[in-house]
Every structure is written in C-alpha cells, then in structure tokens.
Design a protein that fits this description.
The complex is a heterodimer. By secondary structure, chain A is mainly α. Chain A contains 18 helices and four strands. Chain A has a four-stranded mixed sheet, sandwiched between helices. The model of chain B has no long low-confidence stretch (mean pLDDT 87). In chain B, helix 4 packs across helix 5 and helix 5 packs parallel to helix 6. Chain B is built from eleven helices and 14 strands. In chain B, 38% of the residues lie in helices and 26% in strands. The chains are: A mainly alpha, B alpha/beta. At the A-B interface, helix 1 and helix 11 of A face helix 2 and helix 3 of B.
Chain lengths: 404, 308
C-alpha cells in the first residue's frame, strides 16, 4: 500500500518541475479566455453592447416615409439608427459604408409616398434602396430586408386606410393598425425550466469552451510523463518492483484530477473577476457549485482517460504530442470550442454531438447559461465518465501489451 | 539458486528467436557473466528470469520458486540494474532513492538506514540534493546501481552496468560489484567487456543468436576450445607450402608466413605436423603453443563477423 502514495508524490514532483507543462495548462487558457471574451464581446447576439449601426436617409419626408422609418427603428432592436442631418445622395451613403461609419444604409427617395399611393405601376419597394457592407452576416441582412418589406406593407395598408378614412371618416387609421392583434409573442424555452439566455454571450462561450480545451490539454504533460518513464527504463523497474499497470496509470489520476479542478476554479475566477475588470461582461456562475464540480469531474475523467490512451498508443513523446494535440484541436473545432455551436450550420451542429468537448460544454452551459441545478448535468457527466473509463480500459490493455 | 530449462522466446516479427532453448544453472553466491554480441539475447534472458518478458516455453525456478506460480515472489528476490538509467531525471538523487525504497516495500522505519547503506556503496553522499538528470554518466550509473541494491536483494541482475562510462567510474562499479559478491549475493552480470567478465566472474555463459553456446566456470569454458600451436616459417609469404601445411592439419594461415593449428590430441597433431614439415622441407623459424584467452574464445564461439 506504500506504492500508490509514493507514485502520486513522484507525479506531483515531476509535474511541478515541468514549467512548460504548467504554462500550457494554466496560462494558455487564461490568455485565450481574455482575448476571446473581450474581442468577441457582443458578437454572438444582435443587441449586446455592440449594436448594428444603420444610416437612413429619408428624402421624401412624407407621412408614409416617416411611418416607415419609425416602424423600422421600433422593429429592429439593437439597431442604432443614424439619420443624417443634411440630405445625402446614394453615392454619399455608399461612401459612408466604405469608410466604415456604418455597415448598412437605407435610402428613401423623394418620390416614395407618390409611388406608394398613386403610382401603383411603380412599386415603392423598388424605390427604396438598401446598401450594405459585404461582410454583413446574411442573417442580419435578411432581418433588415424582411423588416423593410414589413414596413412597406404596413405603410401601404396605412395609406389605404387613410384613403378610406377620408372617404367615410369616423376612425383613426393608425389606431386601427396598432389595435390589430398581430403581435407574435416570443418566449424562450429552457431545458429544465428557469429563465436564462439561450445563446451564450462572449464570456459564457469563452470561459467554458477554453476551460474544457485546457482540461483536455493534460494530454501533453501526462502522455510525456508516461512515455519518458517507458522509454528510460523506469517502467521496467516499476514492473520489476511488482507495481501493477493499474497503479502506474491510476497514480496519475488524482494528480491530474487536481490539476483539472484547479483549472476549473482559475478559469471561472477569470470569468467572474478578471474579464469584467478589463471591461468585459461578467460570468455568472449561478449558485449550484455541486453541478459545476460534477461536470468538471466528468470532463476530467474523460480528459485523463483520453490522455492515457494517447500515451499508450504513441511510441515517442513527439508522437504523443502530435497525436494528442491534433486530436484535441479537432475535438475542439467540432465540439464548439473554437466556433460556437450556435453559429454552425445544422449539419455541423449534429456532428458536434460526437465530440466529448461538446458534452462538456453543454454541461457547463447548463450551469452558467441556463442556471439549472446539478441534476441537469448528470447525462453529460455520465457520457464523459463512460468515455473516460473506455479510454482508460484501452490504455491499460495497451500498456500491458507494451510492457509484456 | 537459479534453474533455467529450455527457455524459448520469440519477439513478434523477428526472424530468429531471441532465446532458443536456453539451459542455465546459477548456484547460490555465484557471479555469472553473460557474454554475447549485441542482440545475442543477454538482456532478454535477464528480463525473462524475472518474468518481465514473457517466455514462450521453458521453466524458470528461483530458489525453488516456480516463476509461473510465484512471479511476484521471484521478482522480489531480484535487484535490477537495467542498461538504461532507470530513474526519474527531474527528481533529486534522494527523492529517487526514497521513491524506489517505498516501491520496494521497505518499511518507513528502515528506509533511511537502507538508503544510507546504498549511498555509501555507490559513493553518492555528495550528490543527494542534485537532480539525477544533471549527474555525470558515471554518477548516473552509480545511482542506477544504488537503486538496484535497495532492500538487500539476494540476487542482483546487472545489465551492462559499465557501458559508456569513464574508466574511474567503471573501476569503482566493478569494485562495488566485487564487494557485493563477497557479501554472498548471487549476481548475473552482462557485459561486452571480456576482461570484466574474466576478472569478476566465477562462471560464464556465452550466448549467440539466442542460443547458449557455452556455460560453466571460466576454466571449464576455456577448456572447451582447442589448444593452438602457431608456427612461423623461414620462407617468403608467397610460398604455396604454407597453405599446404594449413590445409593438411586443419589450420589457417595467419600473418605473412605463418599458420595457426588448433588441436585436441597433441600426440596425433605433433606426429602429423612432423611428417608434413619433413615432406615439404619447410624451415621452421618460431613455434608458440598455448590456450586462447576469453576474447579468443568469444570469437571462436560467436564468430568474427558482424551479427544480424
């Protein structure tokens, strides 16, 4: 029974003397979290601190055009409407886009109301021009187009009603439209109930994502430790001293589990304290620490098991670093660490489910995004633990074969 | 006592067996040298004796314990000094010794005393706080030896413990091995240095391509080879009669005008030699007669060419 504590102590000594490994495990994810949380602030939602600026030039300044502009401003939340004081030509609006003052501009010509009410043969929608920067995301573009078309329909309807009122009188056209029961109710539905954001903001995306990434990166120091031991003959000595493969591999678990929990505390701390201190959004971790610990533990079991398997498959440290590093990168890319799953096309979102990093991310989001209690993370934790145990079993078999 | 009977081991994908029907007896307290060129199977044999490499066939018994039935007990009787430094370079000498003492199962109360003993044997007291990876090659070999001596194992397996180190360190290690032998420890010692084997070992076993080609005491093994008579003739190197002598007596030509003739029956060989020399009328300049040394024996048994 002296063997396990002695090997754990050995592993701690080796790890604390591996400065490059420690930098990789603790400093790299902090840097990533800070960069991504601050750089991507507001990028995941229309309506965060970074709103979309749109210039609207109303040359017509008629009843219908004013209705259109106010309707658009009301409909597009998170949009900063710039109404230039001086009259601007379409060419000047395009210049504004080129200079980066705004990414979208709407031009309403002076013939707008006439075209709308009197010249049905020349549809008003053709008169209104939308200019946009090419990098404007397609969904945002679609949103503007749909809103503008909706506004035009409303303006036509309003104009028709105004005509009817002039003929028969006795009602307020605007009031009639406002009273129509056509407002759709929008209600987010969360797994397990509760009220929270469904789509993560920058810090809610970055902290769990880079935390999971860093936890899986134990593959580098852990596999190096196993392979150096095997390559230098110390593994023979361990076998000669009747240390079973289970103990050789198992002694690494508490050490790297401790490393993973330290990463968890540190990265959450960065999201709660450091990111807001630097001007970013604050991470709200909720108050269910048990849930965070459970999903952190599941992720750790999976990450350590994966690292053991890589170490057992590889023959050299370089091989392990390459295989392990590349596989972590692929799992991260597929699993929504580097590109948020919310912006992936449906096919890729389906594919993301195969990555253990995606399971871990969902578990962390249950806590820091959906604010659920610890029971919500049990499925993800179970899948991660099963993955980890499977990898461990494979690693033990391969280790035995190498040493046989 | 170690008894090895008919041990066979094939490594996956290798064309020849690593061990091919090895028989070996190592009496208690003996210092047995295992000789052989690279790839002969010396290290594999050592690891097989401890069950660290699984054999395909054969029986291994150590102090009456069957390796298959009591692998842990058999391993516990051995101290191992592997060929490569088998410790953790980032840890200090003291940390390494403490780790392996704990893994060896030495009780905490006795650990300090035992570490002190092996530190003295290996002369490491000045290096205890140094990281093992920063030690010189010689000091690393001494640390390797010290770890193998922890727990006073009754049998010590040394796999080329002096390979690649300076003469001072080598002499120190050989002296330490002699002292360990004098304390009654049974020692298995592999080496390429034939003079080490000759000066240290009471018994020798020669392996070649997985086969045991000779084993026994040094005298027994050297007696296996024929005695050699070397002749030098007072004729030019181009004289064809020299080759005739070599051919007639089963010898070989050496240097410019000489032959070397191995023989087991001196009476018959000397008569035949006299007859051939008389017939060919060859003038004899010099005669040397004697046994080959261990190095000659090694080449005689394993050949002079490069192996595999």
């Amino acid at each position: 029974m002296q063997q396990l504590p002695a090997l754990i102590r050995k592993e701690i000594i080796l790890l604390t003397r591996d400065w490059q490994g420690l930098l990789l495990l603790f400093v790299m994810p902090v840097v990533f979290i800070l960069i991504m949380s601050l750089a991507m602030q507001g990028a995941y939602e229309l309506g965060g601190e970074r709103s979309e600026r749109v210039a609207i030039v109303d040359e017509d300044d008629s009843y219908a055009s004013r209705q259109l502009v106010s309707g658009l401003a009301g409909r597009l939340q998170g949009v900063e409407v710039l109404v230039p004081e001086a009259s601007m030509t379409p060419a000047a609006l395009r210049e504004g886009i080129r200079d980066g003052h705004y990414r979208i501009a709407i031009y309403i010509p002076d013939s707008f109301e006439d075209a709308l009410l009197r010249e049905r043969s020349a549809p008003a929608s053709r008169e209104v021009a939308i200019y946009h920067a090419p990098e404007l995301p397609a969904p945002v573009r679609e949103l503007f187009t749909a809103s503008l078309e909706g506004g035009l329909v409303q303006a036509v309807l309003l104009a028709e009603l105004e005509g009817a009122r002039a003929l028969w009188g006795g009602f307020d056209a605007q009031q009639l439209l406002d009273d129509l029961p056509v407002t759709a109710s929008l209600e987010p539905v969360y797994r397990g109930g509760g009220e929270a954001h469904a789509v993560p903001n920058a810090v809610q995306q970055s902290v769990p994502a880079w935390l999971v990434f860093a936890m899986f990166f134990v593959v580098v120091p852990l596999s190096a430790s196993l392979l150096v031991e095997r390559g230098q003959g110390a593994a023979w000595r361990l076998r000669h001293l009747n240390v079973s493969p289970g103990v050789v591999l198992g002694a690494r678990f508490p050490v790297y589990y401790g490393v993973n929990l330290l990463q968890l505390v540190l990265m959450l701390g960065v999201g709660v304290v450091l990111v807001p201190w630097l001007g970013g959004e604050r991470l709200d971790t909720g108050d269910d620490l048990l849930g965070l610990w459970l999903i952190g533990s599941g992720t750790s079991i999976a990450a350590i098991g994966f690292a053991m398997l890589v170490a057992s498959l590889a023959r050299t440290v370089i091989q392990a670093t390459l295989i392990g590093g590349v596989m972590v990168l692929i799992m991260a890319a597929v699993g929504g660490v580097m590109v948020p799953k919310a912006v992936m096309p449906p096919g890729m979102q389906e594919l993301a489910h195969v990555s253990p990093m995606s399971w871990a991310l969902e578990g962390f989001w249950d806590m820091v995004l959906r604010y659920q209690d610890w029971r919500a993370v049990i499925p993800e934790m179970g899948m991660l633990a099963a993955f980890g145990v499977l990898c461990w079993s494979g690693a033990a078999l391969l280790y035995n074969r190498h040493m046989g | 006592m170690i008894e090895v009977r008919g041990v066979v081991k094939h490594h996956r994908g290798a064309p020849l067996p690593a061990l091919d029907g090895i028989d070996l007896t190592v009496p208690e307290g003996a210092l047995v040298g295992l000789l052989g060129p690279n790839g002969a199977g010396k290290s594999t044999l050592l690891l097989t004796l401890m069950g660290l490499v699984e054999r395909d066939r054969g029986v291994v018994e150590v102090d009456g314990l069957d390796l298959d039935r009591y692998p842990r007990a058999v391993r516990a009787r051995f101290g191992l000094v592997p060929q490569k430094p088998a410790f953790y370079p980032p840890m200090t000498v003291r940390e390494n010794l403490q780790l392996f003492a704990a893994l060896r199962g030495i009780r905490r109360s006795r650990r300090g005393q035992d570490i002190q003993r092996v530190v003295e044997v290996a002369d490491l007291s000045g290096w205890m706080g140094r990281r093992a990876g920063t030690l010189s090659g010689g000091a690393q070999c001494r640390l390797n030896l010290a770890i193998g001596l922890l727990g006073r194992p009754p049998i010590l397996a040394l796999d080329e413990p002096t390979a690649g180190i300076d003469p001072q360190s080598r002499r120190f290690i050989l002296q330490a091995v002699k002292e360990i032998r004098d304390e009654g420890t049974t020692i298995l010692f592999t080496s390429h240095y034939l003079e080490e084997i000759a000066s240290l070992c009471t018994r020798v076993a020669v392996l070649d391509q997985g086969r045991m080609v000779a084993s026994g005491s040094i005298d027994e093994v050297t007696a296996l080879q024929p005695t050699v008579i070397s002749l030098r003739f007072g004729v030019g190197p181009g004289d064809p009669r020299i080759d005739e002598v070599a051919e007639a007596l089963g010898g070989r030509r050496v240097m410019e005008s000489g032959v070397e003739i191995p023989f087991r029956d001196p009476g018959h060989t000397l008569v035949a030699l006299g007859q051939v020399l008389a017939r060919l009328e060859l003038p004899l300049c010099a005669v040397r007669y004697g046994s080959r040394d261990l190095e000659e024996l090694f080449f005689h048994l394993t050949g002079r060419g490069l192996h595999r």
